[in-house]
Amino acid sequence: MPIHLPETTMHSRSTPERTHSRRDMLLGGGLAAVSTALLPAAAVAAESKPAQGPANRIAVSTYSYWRYRDDSKLGIEECIDLAADAGFDGVEILHVQMQDESNPALQRIKQRAFRHGLDLCGFSTHQSFVSPDPAFRKKNVEHTIRCIELAYALGIPTIRVNTGRWGTSKDFDELMANRGIEPRLEGYTDEDGFGWVIDGLEQCLKAAQRCGVVLGLENHWGLGRTAEGVLHVIQQIDSPWLRATLDTGNFLEDQYRQYKLLAPEAVFVQAKTYYGGGTWYDLEINYDDVAEILQGVNYRGYISLEFEGKEKHETAIPKSLAMLRAAFS
Q1: Integer distance in angstroms from the first to the last C-alpha of the chain?
Q2: Beta strand residue intervals within the chain, DSSP E
Q3: For residue 5, what pLDDT is reported?
Q4: pLDDT at 27 over 80
Q5: Widest pairwise Cα distance in the chain
Q6: How far apart are CA 228 and CA 163, in angstroms?
Q7: What is the pLDDT of residues 143-173, one digit of tens each?
Q8: Does the structure show a pLDDT above 90 at 60?
Q9: What is the CATH number of domain 58-327?
Q10: What residue ranges do the domains of the chain occupy?
């Protein structure tokens, strides 16, 4: 269908009108120059700056309140209330913290967040594919698919997944004492382990696509301890439904180099703080530098606080939020 323009735009104007138009433009330009001259220098400088992208929204993981501590076994809905009171934009749910996975319970959680004006933006799950036992790996594939479906029911667009680890450490405390490094199972290689991880995650991709839930492979010990390990899996699988969850607290060496490597693949970022001293270790993180790295790859997603210090959450979490707001504004 042709577009019918107003008659005045279809015919050329007369010469007097064109002259008048040029005079108006000249006068307007002069006034604009005068107006700019009268502006304070700071305002002129601000106007000349390139436009910045929107600030990253800040979430909090329910782990920040719960943290596996016997004296802090809060439910998900209680953590949502605390997050709203603190002024966060969203909540990341720690799956193992959930006491009830029935659909009515999931919908109550979703409604609670909605009434507080909070997004449910992440679902932090645990799995391991690093085992020579096919039955063990199959069980973890089924568990991961179940977590994808839970995220879908909650309206959450991404879940954190792990490669898993060899399991040769006595417990997590021993693993942390060894800076996340543990010996391989005797008779097996990292190449074996990566093959199991890739096969396991590939089996989860159809469910991820069906539910619209992106798997975010985290730098979370085991074969995902380094950015190179996480990227190896992502590149081998090569699917838009598998990307990275970047945890700022899980690179114990050469952290900024590794942030830069993983940042282009990140769909979710977990930001650790350690007020009162770290539970397992202290890590100095300059979040202004982290923000600059993420801005450099145009990361627009959530920054989710994982508080992992010894200070009480009542004081440490508001301080963490204020610091992250300043860094990612």
Answers
A1: 46
A2: 58-61, 90-94, 119-124, 158-161, 214-218, 242-247, 266-273, 303-307
A3: 31
A4: no
A5: 92
A6: 13
A7: 999 999 999 999 999 999 999 999 999 898 9
A8: yes
A9: 3.20.20.150
A10: 7-48, 58-327
